[in-house]
């Protein structure tokens, strides 16, 4: 396939995003006001949103699709752009004092836009994956350098046809040594590949610089492949002036973008839940107070990010002074739990006050379950890897809570911890949304305890 339709892909995605944005805006207006034709205030809002999106999207380049295809990374980038866009729109609204805009219309517009784009990106990635497996939309590549490294790379490409790479030539170290640099460069230019993979153990820096300059001049991507095998480790590149260094970790570090995205989502989601659920909060507070003696709320010290202690808040589900004999984990048919408390725990309603912890920044909506120091010391003795979970904010809900539930002893806490360690390796807004949906399912089915 000689035509490079992928060159038109960013423009197509950009226009498609803009179309979906307006589809979301006009549908939101229809649902809120019962008419597709917007009035003056709504029209101002729609125009403002469109202008802001064009600028923010162009700066973030969220419409670019890179190889290899990573749907999660692409949606994360889109969500970060969406948050920047929302902040930009709110700033303009506040600066120009445009306050006559329906909050319901704003929230519904952004919710629909997010859903539309997730569907669009999923369909696009499925389509690209399909046609590349069929042999279309491929890029011609040349691999030069060490044969062992090259064989590993070729094997990876053969196992993932969705990458869309066709090997047009391989030039070994021996072949490179037998010809001059000018001949090598001339031969590569004549073959006109889309990308060149440089596999090296020891690379001549002058040759590498010439290859990079050639790539810039002829629009050929130059990618360097080392002989390093990461296994289950993770790496990111750090540049110390002109010295590139790979920083290795046993777990992926959470980038600044993901941290900003996650915190923005936490604040937005918690604010919506606390405002929309205010009547439910009041009802739960009153019923808790009337059904048993003691305060409506319960607080307890837990350990958060970087081992910093904080107080967690809940609706009280146990009788007062339930731990006079010392720290105890809850269990089935626990006599300390009130009848009303049992119902709250099964539906997880007792944990709603923790949204205040999320707003304060002590917790995140999704993250490892926060534990007490008393139990952390016992867990660490059995599984020292628990310390990894203390590098992130604990969560109101977690993948461990969804798939395992509450633990009745330290051994069960260790078993549940394995789920949270898996989450630590795949932190993204997509996985957070998935865990939230599963948590809602547990609440509706009353399967908590």
Average of the residue pLDDT scores = 85
How many separate domains?
A: 3
Please tell me what the overall shape is: globular
Number of helices: 16
Counting helices, strands and paired strands, the structural category is alpha/beta
GO molecular function, one term: phosphotransferase activity, for other substituted phosphate groups
Pfam families: Bac_transf
InterPro entries: Bact_transf (IPR003362), EPS_sugar_tfrase (IPR017475)
GO cellular component, one term: membrane
Q: Summary?
A:
This protein has 449 residues and is an alpha/beta fold.
Task: Describe what you observe in this structure.
With 449 residues, this protein is an alpha/beta fold. The protein folds into 3 domains: 5-133, no CATH class; 139-227, Rossmann fold; 256-319 and 337-445, no CATH class. Helices cover 55% and strands 13% of the residues. It is built from 16 helices and 10 strands. The strands form 4 sheets. A 4-stranded parallel β-sheet has the order 2-1-3-4. Helix 1 packs antiparallel against helix 4 (103-133). The longest helix has 31 residues, at 103-133. The chain is globular. The mean pLDDT is 85. The chain crosses the membrane at residues 12-37, 43-66, 78-96, 108-131, 267-290. InterPro entries: Bact_transf, EPS_sugar_tfrase. It is found in: Membrane. This is Sugar transferase. One of its GO terms (molecular function) is phosphotransferase activity, for other substituted phosphate groups.
